Amino acid sequence: MTAVALPSEAAGCLSEEDLLAFASGQLSHEVRERAHRHLDICEACQQLLSEAVHALATARSAGVTERNEAVWSTTFRPGMLIGQRYVIRRFIARGGMGEVYEALDQALQERVALKTVTATASDDPNAVRRLKAEVQLARRVSHPNVCRIYDFGTHRASTSPPLSFLTMEFVEGETLGVRLRRSGALPLQAAISLASTLLHGLQAAHTAGVLHRDFKSDNVMLRGAGQQLEPLILDFGLARAFDRLDAQSSTSQRGVVGTFAYMAPEQLEGEPYTPASDIYSFGLVWYEMLTGELPFKTRSSPAMTTIERLTKPVPAPSTKNAAVFGALDALVLACLRRSPRERPQNAGAVLARLEQLGRLEQLEHQLGRQRSKRLLRSLPAACVLLAAAALALQHGVGKAPHATSKAAALAERRSEPAVSPLDPDAPVPMSAQVVASQPLLAPRHFGKPGVPSSAGASSKERPKLGAGTLPPAPTVSVASPLKQRHEQLVPGWENPFVATSEPPSTNMGAVLEQPLYRGSSARHSEFPEGGR
Amino acid sequence: MKPEHDDEIVRAMYLAGQRRWTLFTLPFEAFQRHLESVRTETQTGSLQAADLYLSCACALAHPEALRLFECETSHVAEAAIRRVDGDDEFVRDSLQELWNRLLLGNRAKVRSYSGRGPLQAWVRVAATRVALDRRRADRRHGRREVELSEQLADSETSPEAVELKTRFGAAFQTALRGSLSRLSEQDRNVLRMHVVGRCSIDEIGVAYDVHRATAARWIERARGAIYDDVQRELCGQHKLTISEFRSLATMLGAELELSFGLGHLSTQDRGPVGLQ
Known about the structure:
- The complex is a heterodimer.
- By secondary structure, chain A is of the alpha+beta class.
- Chain A has helices spanning 16-23, 29-39, 43-61, 125-139, 176-183, 188-207, 238-247, 265-268, 275-291, 302-311, 326-335, 347-366, 373-378, 381-395, 400-413, 432-436, 455-460, 481-489, 508-512, and strands at residues 81-82, 86-94, 99-105, 110-116, 149-157, 160-169, 174-175, 220-223, 230-233.
- Chain A has 4 domains: 1-69, no CATH class; 74-184 and 217-258, Phosphorylase Kinase, domain 1 (2-Layer Sandwich), CATH 3.30.200.20; 187-204 and 263-460, Transferase(Phosphotransferase), domain 1 (Orthogonal Bundle), CATH 1.10.510.10; 481-512, no CATH class.
- In chain A, the strands form 2 sheets. Chain A has a 6-stranded antiparallel sheet, with helices on one face. A 3-stranded antiparallel sheet of chain A has the order 7-8-9.
- In chain A, strand 1 and strand 2 (86-94) form a beta hairpin.
- In chain A, helix 1 packs across helix 3 and helix 11 packs antiparallel against helix 12 (347-366).
- The longest helix of chain A has 20 residues, at 188-207.
- Chain A starts with 15 loop residues before the first helix and ends in a 20-residue tail after the last helix.
- Chain B is mainly α.
- Chain B contains 12 helices and no strands.
- Chain B has helices spanning 7-20, 28-37, 49-59, 63-84, 88-103, 119-137, 148-153, 159-182, 185-195, 201-207, 212-237, 242-252.
- At the A-B interface, helix 1, helix 2, helix 3, strand 2 and helix 18 of A face helix 1, helix 3, helix 4, helix 5 and helix 6 of B.
């Protein structure tokens, strides 16, 4: 078989092989003449040839083409010992702050995520000192739903300048952003439950005086599998730490850190960043969870989208997902107010209002009242909340286990299937409509049954997304042609993809399955399914 | 015709692959067989050993290798696709299609990677191809194709230029196209790589395995030929004087003499090129 024969592609176009060979001067004269004839009439190949030429030039400048070494453009390679303690296992991703690796902490024999700091300023002692201070601050956040930062170190090698790095909790799973991009809006219950858990994490940080500054769905990791999924907030407070460091070496625009699409208006305008700014970003993520997209999603540039976001009123989530009820609409929109003063001032304030909603729903079931979304929509949210608070005081809220049986009885009376959100064997809700026909906020969403949810309680225990909050997600699906191919080609290989029980193809499990291929925008997302 | 596959070289390449990719192991025989199947005229010893090792494991659908493949190349692929079209949805779909084309099924393209260039460069070209294919298929992106002659001559600088363009623009374009068609295929391709593809003299030198000075001389020669051709045509048929032609060429041809008017073209103007 020879790859230089032309035409090597179906339409007579040059293959990747031919193009790279052409670009690197490895085509024989005769073959090149034929390539010329084709290039003269094929626009795509003309463009591809230029791309190949540039790709080779880039690779050369990065040292990738060193022969028989194949030095990739990552800073560390598997097996390297970093900071006298961490052995690199593999490269995971490259982000704005640097590169992320999986490493083994030799002292504790534990896996960690190792993140390099953009090399430029690592040898400036002042910059490193400032970074350390920021990291120390970020480390004050101790919450089960916030990714822990372990260590800050400097790698020194004789051949290269010193390089600072951070180690942090190693997280397996996929990011919320990846999940949303892949399968759209979450079921209503899951979106509310997840928001509640995330708010607990944010609240812990706000209480410790730490702001996230770059809260977005790609900074939320969903870890574990199936019914044990739990969210973990990544990179708490690191945005500024890295920005500070970068400031030493660059004259680029200062003062704005974070991700454009999730920035609060005041952040974009260079105003002081407050906990309410985190709330705005959180509001956007919540909106995304409920509707599957950010409020303004245009085909134009991110800058245009941002301008739209700053100048137009936010459309209510219910306009995109009919299952979202009025009081929830109001709360999400409150987080997204243009002026930070008009938003809930911190995560605790949002949480309090969310829990009031939860109590309202719970009470409805306890009282056996017909829940009416229309009524909720028609009343101003404030009235609803006041009423809810009053009712909550009157009837108490700690009757969670009761509520379930009542809800089931109620459902039975309405001759609907008795789907309890607490029942792990219950059918999986398939859509927002199905979810809407169930109790909206079952007690479990705000903690364990019988345990009234509060900041104090939840910061001690890691709230899990229990059964019924997210549908059970089998870790595997045999639907992927790649996996089939793998089995077909390498039958003897230990195959992590082999499913023990095949989920029905319409099951949400297929949607929740860990995909093998995703875009690089998903940091950490390449980990296999299954938590520690 | 086929180069001898020296066992020692193959073994050294195998070891290089093992050193680079420690998270999975490939049997030596599998690597050897793979190397045989992608053999090209290029000397074995100058191939990208570690990249071949990884691609071989991917061809055998080793899960760890597939994951590493994506880790190592997805950012390059995404950037390449984004250069064709920055729409997020487009990028996402194209990436998915790319992985399908490269890694899935019996016709997985990764099986044909022969190691003559780094894997990242190979993926970058493949990603660009997927993106171009998709864009062509997608009517929403009915972008006008930019022709080399337009790239060479497009300029709007002054009222005089507009007027001259009105009077002689069509004749100038015709002359320019005629002249381009009279160049040799190689000269035309070199010029196109330089003008439209924005390849530097050095890069063209590498592609044609010549010194950069030679590549520069080719481009100058092509430019000179075009200039003379167009001048002959306009001064002959349209009775322009030499100095009138020079000012016309300066305005219309956007400094044809110097750079073929690349200065005013932004990278966004890059696009597929066709010659009539």
